[in-house]
Amino acid sequence: MKRVRITIAPPDTYLPPVYQLLTSGTPYLSHVQIVNWNVADPPVGFLLRVRGDYEKLRQALTTSTNVRDFEVFPDSRSEAYCFLAAKQPTVGRALFENFTRDDLLTIPPIECYDDGSSSFTLVGTDTAIQAAIDGIPDGVDLSVEAVGQRPVTASGSLSPKQRDAVRAALRVGYYDVPREATTKDVAQEVGCAPATASEHLRKAESHVFSSLFESLDSP
User: Fold this and answer.
1) Considering Cα of 65, then 71, then 76, then 77, what sign does the dihedral take?
2) Does residue 170 share a domain with residue 135?
3) Domain that holds residue 195
4) What whole-number distance in Å separates Cα of residue 16 and Cα of residue 152?
5) I need a surface site. Which of 31, 59, 172, 181 has the fewest CB within 10 A?
6) What is the maximum alpha-carbon separation in the chain?
7) Residues 167 and 133 in one domain
8) What is the rounded distance in angstroms from the CA atom of residue 31 to the CA atom of residue 34?
9) How many whole angstroms from its chain centre is CA 97?
10) Count of Cβ atoms closer than 10 Å to residue 100 Cβ
């Protein structure tokens, strides 16, 4: 059996409207994970864990496309679980089912990023994992973050755009003491708006520090 951590970055055509809402459409959320799912037809259901202003998410889901039912379960002042049930399957279902075939297991959580990409761990035979990778549709980018029993570092939980922003910030001296650059300098380095660079850095920092303290608090 093999363990592989991958990141996939599909085009918008593979991203259901509610997924786009949960990632690029919710700047008030700093962290979105899929912790469980049921892709039977019907129903199609997902259990999410979100960090941020989940009351705004609750309001947004009331008018979201293709949401048959939902419920938000607060876990703290800044974190909540959210159950979602879709009205009908979307084109993204085929991409998801590609990783639940044969002798393959997708290990939760699935980390969801604001650029539409996601990272998750696969466990299965070499043949099953290779078949899933070969089954990725054209236009969907895939990168392998870790193979075998090597630990996935905190940087592995960042989206590609977040990693690019952090690398750029390190190059221009944004994290130097004293600080030698601003988010505007980072934005020029990666070719985006300063507000976008600031958001990538903020979410990357949130992921890294959360991962760090979760590991320190683990027995």
Assistant:
1) positive
2) no
3) 155-217
4) 28
5) 59
6) 56
7) no
8) 10
9) 17
10) 13
